[in-house]
């Protein structure tokens, strides 16, 4: 155990503190740990729990991400010096092996941030010692820095000015963990860029990937601040139909999942049809049927994709007229191309 501030007097209260830490805290802390389950807005439908981690859902999200190797390995302005390119002569076998390695590296880069529920606030008082009230004008923080502890199960307690011994809040835990076990890129205090007045100009510039990458470094997925920032970013993307900015990045899957979960896929579906992505439109509709159990689930048949999308538009779309026109325009163009090819 490590104490940030040192008691000048050793009394019975300190002995009581040690006793409480050895007994109550190690047992009660298990209630703080959060289970990994899917965030799904205000719904409490048990059928929608853990759907983000469902194999079929993950497969569809990865397909919709569209792994473009040129985009994945593009040079980004990250404030680091770029390494000069290296040229090699390879045999066909060596080249194929290298391509497989690149594919694996791309899969790692495109690994999606998890979508989990909001964590519960920590409000647990372990002991109340009125004799210590006013003894110190500052809080005393006790942190277990033993080897092998994680950020979740590390024991951190606070003795406040009123003499109460309580478990540290999430904000206090984050700061203490970052002080003793710093993560590269994460700051002890929340960066100013995440404040609303500074976040809006960055969103207006379209730096969505930068915001989401920075949020992943600074916050845990179940942090209310993280989920507020991601939802704000996703909504801004949806309003401006800037989906292509995140396509082929690790954030496109969570973006699509959020839109499907909030029943906001009409604009994304429209973008798919207008950009000749009928296959993506079918995957998007299939994902909608999986995540929304109230919708009558249907299967997309190869060669009948337009009918599959058309049925969704007629039954569940909020922008039927616009989507029907886009689907008709897509069908007309394809029909015209087929006629020209047959001549």
From TrEMBL:
Please give the Gene Ontology molecular function terms for this protein: structural constituent of ribosome
Q: This protein's superkingdom? A: Eukaryota
The record, for InterPro entries, names: Ribosomal_mS22
Q: Which Pfam family is one of this chain's hits?
A: MRP-S22
The UniProt entry's GO CC annotations, sorted and at most eight, read: mitochondrial small ribosomal subunit
Q: Which PANTHER family match?
A: MITOCHONDRIAL 28S RIBOSOMAL PROTEIN S22 (PTHR13071), SMALL RIBOSOMAL SUBUNIT PROTEIN MS22 (PTHR13071:SF4)
- Provide the protein name: 28S ribosomal protein S22, mitochondrial
The species this protein belongs to is Clastoptera arizonana
């Amino acid at each position: 155990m490590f104490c940030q501030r040192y008691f000048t007097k050793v009394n019975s209260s300190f002995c009581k503190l040690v006793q409480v830490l050895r007994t109550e805290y190690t047992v009660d802390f298990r209630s703080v740990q959060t289970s990994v389950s899917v965030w799904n807005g205000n719904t409490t439908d048990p059928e929608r729990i853990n759907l983000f981690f469902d194999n079929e859902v993950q497969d569809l999200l990865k397909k919709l991400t569209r792994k473009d190797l040129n985009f994945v390995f593009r040079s980004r302005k990250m404030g680091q010096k770029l390494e000069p390119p290296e040229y090699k002569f390879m045999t066909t076998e060596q080249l194929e092996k290298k391509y497989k390695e690149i594919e694996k590296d791309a899969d790692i880069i495109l690994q999606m941030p998890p979508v989990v529920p909001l964590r519960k606030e920590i409000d647990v008082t372990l002991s109340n010692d009125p004799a210590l009230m006013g003894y110190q004008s500052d809080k005393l923080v006790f942190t277990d820095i033993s080897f092998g502890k994680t950020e979740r199960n590390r024991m951190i307690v606070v003795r406040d000015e009123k003499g109460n011994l309580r478990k540290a809040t999430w904000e206090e835990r984050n700061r203490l963990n970052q002080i003793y076990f710093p993560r590269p890129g994460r700051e002890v205090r929340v960066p100013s860029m995440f404040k609303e007045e500074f976040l809006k100009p960055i969103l207006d510039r379209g730096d969505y990937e930068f915001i989401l990458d920075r949020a992943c470094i600074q916050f845990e997925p179940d942090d209310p601040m993280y989920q507020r920032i991601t939802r704000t970013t996703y909504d801004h993307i949806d309003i401006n139909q800037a989906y292509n900015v995140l396509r082929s990045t690790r954030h496109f899957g969570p973006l699509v999942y959020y839109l499907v979960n909030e029943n906001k896929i009409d604009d994304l579906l429209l973008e798919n049809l207008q950009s000749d992505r009928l296959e993506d439109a079918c995957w998007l509709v299939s994902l909608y049927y999986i995540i929304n159990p109230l919708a009558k689930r249907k299967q997309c048949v190869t060669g009948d994709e337009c009918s599959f999308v058309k049925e969704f538009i007629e039954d569940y779309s909020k922008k039927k007229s616009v989507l029907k026109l886009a689907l008709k325009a897509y069908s007309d163009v394809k029909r015209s191309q087929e006629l020209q090819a047959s001549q």
